[in-house]
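Bug #77: duplicate submission created two jobs. Keeping one. Sequence:
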Amino acid sequence: MIVKNEEEVIGRCLKSVHEVVDEIIIVDTGSTDRTKEICSEYTEKIYDFEWINDFAAARNFAFSLATMDYLFWLDADDVLQTEDSEKIRELKETLDPTIDSITMVYCLAQDEQGNMTSSNRRNRIVKRLNHFQWRGFVHEYLEVGGKISNSDIVVYHKPMKSHVSDRNLTIYNSRLERGDHFSPRDLYYFANECLDHRLYEQAVEYYEKFLDTNQGWIEDKIAACGKLADCFHHLGNKERESYYTLKSFEYDTPRAEFCCRMGFGFMQQNEWEKAVFWYRLASEMTRPNDNWGFFNHACWTWLPHLQLCVCYYRLGEYLQAYKHNEIARQYIPDNEKVLFNRRLLEGLLN
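Kept job's structure:
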């Protein structure tokens, strides 16, 4: 782990994992709170690393200190549930030594009932002797190869701080001022930082620069289309919002997230038949098992059905509306909107 001023969350993380790993290595990049003191309750292997505005460098230093056969990395605001800790314990006993990397699901958000609402997949456990390296000074990634196994183990991201930090944006801007070369991936993640800080026009500039390179990971290209649509929505340009929503289809078969976006655009214009087309398309898609990119679970489960309920209600087709509301209720049984729709439609049908 690499950490800095994580006293609010580091204990929770280490408590969830310390009984299933053989060593814990903490690399501190300049904490001024109780982070190192809390870490010392779980490990003696705490090291200092002078911060040089390079996350990959810090992570590679942490990896270089490991002595076990496999390395498992976490962030301070990550946590394992008991069932996932047990799965790791079992994995250690059955792991095929020819495996080079094991991926895990990364739960980025949950609803009030604890259901996963957004996620992606990350390489989490890697063979030490392969000397896999982290790349990227910000939004670093672990460059791996060889035999990769996809597990159903989940790591939960549970940050305590809700504000957007200026740290990454400052690093990117300093590199821009210095004239550093930005890789396609750098362009994409710099645009993300601009979007997070509501710098919509600057975000558009760098997302478009990223797409113009015609390089980079396909999931980032698809995500960039969605984020460009977000930017133009905030800028009030519906034509460009629609353009980038449809452009996502150039990179892969339509994703439910973009079909729902198209449907919502037509709902806003009271074009209910057109909205039905896109939401029905979203509702009929097969949910992927191992999606590496950002995955909005609502768009692949209950959301298109809830919206179809509204569309069919507006069209006066109450039985169809009721049918789709009931499908949505299977996923979110206690949702207030679903329960309200049910009462309303049962009254109309009766």
